[in-house]
Specification:
Elements: H1 2-22, E1 30-32, H2 35-38, E2 42-44, H3 52-56, E3 61-69, E4 75-82, H4 88-97, E5 99-100, E6 103-105, E7 108-120, H5 127-140, H6 145-157, H7 161-174, H8 180-192, H9 195-208, H10 213-226, H11 229-242, H12 247-259, H13 263-276, H14 281-294, H15 297-310, H16 315-325
Parallel strand pairs: 1-7
Antiparallel strand pairs: 2-5, 3-4, 3-7, 6-7
Amino acid sequence: MQLLLITYALCSFCIATSYSAQTPPPQIQRITVDWQRQKALQISGNRAVYPPIAQVAHIEGTVQVRFVITTDGSTKDPAYLYGPPLLMMAAIDAIRTWRFNPTVAAGIPVEVETVAAVKFFLPGHDVGTYLAPFRKAVQKHPNDPKEHISLGQQMLDVGEIEDASGEFQQAISLQPNQAKPYFGLGDAFAAKGDAESAIKEYRQGLSLNASEADAYFKLSALLERKGDVQSAVSEYRLGLQLKPKEGYRHDNFGILLMKANDVDAAIDEFRLALHSDPEDAFTHWRLGTALEKKGDLDGALREYKKASKEQPQNQDFKNAAERLAK
């Protein structure tokens, strides 16, 4: 009788373990919302800290960042789109602290994807004063494509998208074999939401200069949003070969690989990302999700617990750990 009970308990355990391994984590719905609407739901968060080195160098502008607001109102997956690179991390660090009222659609909590514009201007400066010296340089050298490119890039940095497009097109007409204005025009089209035109310009630029890593990343993001995940993976991999040391790039690539159902490769990328930032709660959570999908429940539980330890207020992390612990 005792042997029978032990056998029954073992069988029950095996069935429960098998079911848990085969049951995927629940899918969370996601919607896209314009930043001006979403901003009204923000309840807390730090202002971006102007980097002293950028102030000394008089680097100003607007950083565009795409990110996701989770079902508990916290933020995740910040992705730099464009703006002065020296200001990028200051914008991302601020966004990581932002909290919002959760969004509910049709009675169901949903994630929200949005693009925020984080502005950095010196005291007493605005868009007009910022652009004035660049406009003056174009007026002085109207046939110099470099001046048009520089003005176009600065216009992009402060959100003057239509005028920026005109400057890049002017630079292309003056020097059609230079890659840089095609990349800039691609950025402008992407900012306007014209993915097809942006993809065309990025590819034209890369045909002239194949060593521009950021163009591959931007091209990959547009292809992913169109649903061409395999092509997005190929382009991202080319960019990562040129910039292999940036941890957040590996994290983003892991997310993309999960969408491509390449779980093993995604696990490798998440682990590379954690080498750069071992305390990133969201990367631990994503690694846990990948390990769970593969069937490594012990490994997944460890990662969920690490994520919950880093951000104990995040209910998604806590729920994932409790679900596997059972």
